[in-house]
């Protein structure tokens, strides 16, 4: 549920959609804030129905929106709108797993076989650490599922998937590489297994552990782990996917869907403010001790960019930032925090699949994080 998926959908879909007006939340009239709004508008122009963002820096908090909340309307994107956060879910799951490590209930070098006997053909060779940093080599189950705009994709819209059957689809395919730990390959299968391991260790579903350990203590009131519920409750922008109808490709409102297909790899719903609060708490040392936080920041392979549930990236101004980004098909999001804690940004959009907004998003992130 990352950039490869976005590129695939964009490359296979050519759509004509309504031009979207711009709406901005009130913010101090400063040059840097005007530049942020301009870059958020550029994101929408590059390929989004709507976008929303929250930036925190030495000037305070800026919130902005662009585009529309729903096609065919002029309704502004709600600045506190909720969206499917996709793979940012993985950082929450990783945090819970590492808290269990800190409590002595789980070890990073535990083989998967220890907790999930018989689930993987080579479960004795793959460790919890390798699941967390995507060095397991496990095939990504996502590649076994139909994607938009095929009609088969829509056939699964309301289907409830179990982690077990999705993992089985993955292990029916050969590993991406051998041996485990020798390379990096992003795989949503890794985090489905981590969700199952958390349940084995605690006796509670991973979603309950996220609620108990992170959502409630941090008062993330716009954040939830929906399970099989298709709804996004509260204010929200509508999300869309390309769909073939009568031989033509159209945007279909996909705001409601059964998120169990994403599970522990990407099912969570959140807001820009909540994600900023979460990453500030995590990277500020409130959720994990320093040695485990350092592990999150350390790539699993030399020269890599993914640690134990965190991406690291260098901005255009040479500032190192940590966070994650997520793709939930109808919603895309990015959340990053500077190493010194002075700048933070979360931005989310609803793609229209006319083009690839990644470059425009990168420009927005750089402006927010570099000032």
Automatic annotation (TrEMBL):
Signal peptide: 1-19
MF terms in GO: serine-type D-Ala-D-Ala carboxypeptidase activity
InterPro entries: AmpC-like, Beta-lactam-related, Beta-lactam/transpept-like
Top EC group: hydrolase
Keywords: Carboxypeptidase, Hydrolase, Protease, Signal
Assigned EC number: 3.4.16.4
Transmembrane segments: none
Domain Beta-lactamase-related: 48-363
Entry keyword annotation includes Magnesium: no
PANTHER family: D-ALANYL-D-ALANINE CARBOXYPEPTIDASE, D-ALANYL-D-ALANINE-CARBOXYPEPTIDASE/ENDOPEPTIDASE AMPH
Protein name: D-alanyl-D-alanine carboxypeptidase
Organism for this UniProt entry: Actinopolymorpha pittospori
């Amino acid at each position: 549920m990352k950039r490869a998926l976005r590129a695939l959908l964009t490359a296979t879909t050519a759509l004509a959609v309504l031009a979207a007006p711009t709406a901005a939340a009130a913010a101090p009239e400063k040059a840097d804030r005007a530049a942020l709004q301009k870059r958020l508008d550029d994101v929408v122009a590059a390929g989004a129905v709507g976008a929303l963002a929250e930036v925190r820096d030495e000037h305070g908090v800026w919130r902005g929106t662009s585009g529309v909340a729903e096609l065919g309307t002029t309704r502004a994107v709600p600045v506190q709108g909720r969206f499917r956060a996709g793979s940012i879910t993985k950082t929450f799951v990783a945090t819970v797993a590492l808290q269990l490590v800190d409590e002595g209930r789980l070890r990073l070098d535990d083989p998967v076989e220890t907790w999930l006997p018989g689930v993987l053909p080579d479960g004795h060779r793959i460790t919890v650490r390798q699941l967390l940093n995507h060095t397991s080599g496990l095939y990504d189950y996502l590649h076994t599922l139909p994607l938009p705009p095929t009609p088969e994709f829509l056939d699964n819209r309301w289907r409830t998937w179990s982690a077990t059957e999705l993992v089985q689809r993955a292990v029916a395919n050969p590993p991406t590489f051998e041996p485990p730990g020798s390379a990096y390959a992003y795989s949503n299968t890794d985090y489905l297994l981590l969700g199952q391991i958390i349940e084995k260790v605690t006796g509670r579903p991973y979603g309950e552990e996220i609620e108990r350990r992170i959502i409630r203590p941090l008062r993330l009131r716009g954040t939830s782990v929906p399970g099989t519920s298709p709804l996004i409750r509260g204010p929200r922008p509508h999300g869309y996917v390309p769909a073939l109808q009568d031989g033509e490709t159209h945007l279909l409102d996909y705001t409601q869907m059964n998120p169990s297909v994403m599970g522990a790899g990407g099912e969570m719903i959140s807001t820009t403010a909540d994600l900023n609060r979460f990453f500030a708490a995590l990277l500020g040392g409130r959720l994990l001790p320093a040695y485990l936080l350092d592990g999150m920041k350390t790539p699993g392979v030399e020269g890599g960019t993914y640690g134990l549930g965190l991406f690291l990236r260098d901005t255009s101004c040479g500032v190192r930032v940590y966070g994650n980004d997520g793709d939930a098909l109808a919603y895309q999001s990015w959340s990053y925090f500077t190493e010194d804690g002075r700048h933070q940004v979360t931005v989310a959009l609803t793609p229209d699949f006319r083009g690839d907004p990644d470059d425009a998003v990168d420009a927005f992130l750089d402006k927010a994080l570099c000032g």
